Amino acid sequence: MRRGVILVSCVQCPQRISIDLPGAGTINGPHPLLGSPSVRPTGNPTSTPNPSRRRASLQEDAEKETPATESLGKGEGLVWEEEEGRATLILTFTLRNARKAGLSKTVKVFQTFEAGIQHLETRQAKKSKNTTDDLEFFVKCEVHNSDVSVLINSLKKVAEDVKTIREERGMQFPWFPKKIRDLDKCHHLIAKYEPDLDHDHPVSLRSSLGCCSFRREVYRKLSSLYPTHACKQYLDAFQQLEKCCGYQEDSIPQLQDVSRFLKERTGFQLRPAAGLLSPRDFLASLAFRVFQSTQYIRHSSSPMHSPEPDCCHELLGHVPMLADKEFAQFSQAIGLASLGSSDVEIEKLATLYWFTIEFGLCKQNGSIKAYGAGLLSSYGELVYALSNKPEHKPFDPELTAVHPYQDQTFQPVYFVAENFEDAKAKLQKYALKIKKPFSLHYDPFTCSIEVLNTPQKVKNTLSQMKEELKNLCFALENIS
């Protein structure tokens, strides 16, 4: 599973950055997008203005303006949390000519109000005339409640498109995407390896003359096992992929063709990912029936196993199962359960994902078959998992979610589901026990998530369901 944490990441350069202003730290650099360390505040009175004087000046200016929280609009997907007089503010803004004075002025605003930067990300501005110096920022910081409006008004003077939102008091929960376009913010990478620098590592971005031959070997050996080791749903979809998407020894399936194939069958679509994503971001994508797919390929020195998910794992392991409607619903159920969940619950859901979607087994016609992508893309572990060497346990979400797992060797234990319908029912029952201050509803027509926090929203959702039930009843009448 894609695990780990990067506190600060950048879309174009996943190099780690740490930001810490007075009470929090310094900007470590240089960084390709943030510039050189010369812009960082040192906290030395001889080199920076008097913070108290600057604060007073900014407060005086802010009092003459409309409070920022009234003029920012609703915003989307940005959360406000409050605790003990301190506010955790999450906001986005755009800086023009960030390499020049823009970043320095912005840093001074956060420094003046002694904001503790907890998370910062940058990416190139979407609407930019200058492709290198115009940046979009995503910042999570902690400030005193009384300073929030002043800080935002001050930030608006040096930045553009400043956006934030204040949720209902007491509704404290992690941010999660509510629209499919919000997945643009779900890109926190976990850098475990540097395959482009280490050519001997079992994952490589490097192309080689032997690539085609070892790819044929992977396809040939794995496909020879599928008839006896893979579940029926996998076999049916794999046959269709060979027919429609070029799944053959001598061809490379194109991501767009495969994504179109999935979209027509289950509504899932593939989204290119630069590498391993954090568990929260990866699971959130599943809620929208979006699968984040890596683009690199395993090293030719290890054709039958990859320590990280590569395109062989995605195309041979995940895609065929995502073409099955029952399994697609199961996958989305895990994603929906993750939205707004605590870090502890995310860890449990990630473990559930590991033992089901990655390394799950199921019963079919009195035999045990594989449906997990990690098994179906690894020749050695697929043979091992269905042998009498490992332990097989019944799938129980409560136990599975806290069971230790292995990511460097074969699993000593695998969990066996009765069938996908049973596994989905157990997972949904488990998800209902996750403590959240709200309920969620996925709208397949708009591909969006609605928070059911008012009676009217619940009524609207019920009204949609009633219309669907009427159509189904009418269809039954016509059939009979």
Automatic annotation (TrEMBL):
Keywords: Iron, Metal-binding, Monooxygenase, Oxidoreductase. Fe cation binds at residues 313, 318, 358. One of its GO terms (molecular function) is tyrosine 3-monooxygenase activity. GO terms for cellular component: axon; cytoplasm; perikaryon. PROSITE patterns: BH4_AAA_HYDROXYL_1, BH4_AAA_HYDROXYL_2. Signal peptide: none annotated. InterPro entries: ACT-like_dom_sf (IPR045865), ArAA_hydroxylase (IPR001273), ArAA_hydroxylase_Fe/CU_BS (IPR018301), ArAA_hydroxylase_sf (IPR036951), Aro-AA_hydroxylase_C_sf (IPR036329), Aromatic-AA_hydroxylase_C (IPR019774), TH_ACT (IPR049321), Tyrosine_3-monooxygenase-like (IPR019773). Residues 22-77 are annotated as: Disordered. Belongs to the biopterin-dependent aromatic amino acid hydroxylase family. PANTHER family: AROMATIC AMINO ACID HYDROXYLASE (PTHR11473), BIOPTERIN-DEPENDENT AROMATIC AMINO ACID HYDROXYLASE FAMILY PROFILE DOMAIN-CONTAINING PROTEIN (PTHR11473:SF19). It comes from the Eukaryota. GO terms for biological process: dopamine biosynthetic process from tyrosine. Its cofactor is Fe(2+). Residues 216-480 form the Biopterin-dependent aromatic amino acid hydroxylase family profile domain. This is Biopterin-dependent aromatic amino acid hydroxylase family profile domain-containing protein. Residues 41-51 have a biased composition (Low complexity).
